[in-house]
Design a protein that fits this description.
By secondary structure, this protein is mainly alpha-helical. The chain has helices at about 15-40, 50-65, and strands at about 10, 15. It has one domain.
């Protein structure tokens, strides 16, 4: 039997699981880039905003696949 993710209900408003996964992914990517900036590791990247976008996509895929219940 396939597990189909259902919507999340917050205050009677339904949100799709992909929205929740992408918000979590962006927040964790933002925290990661803040840590990279604090320890001055972002200077090794050619274009740090692109790293933020790439991390957001990677974390969103991770949360959507493994963390959000199906």
């Amino acid at each position: 039997m396939l597990l189909i993710p259902s919507e999340f209900s917050i205050g009677g408003v339904y949100f799709p699981p992909l929205l929740i996964a992408s918000l979590l992914g962006f927040f964790v990517a933002w925290l990661t880039t803040q840590l990279l900036n604090r320890y001055r590791l972002s200077r090794y990247f050619a274009y740090p905003p692109l790293v933020l976008l790439a991390l957001a996509v990677i974390y969103s895929l991770f949360f959507g696949t493994f963390v959000i219940p199906g």
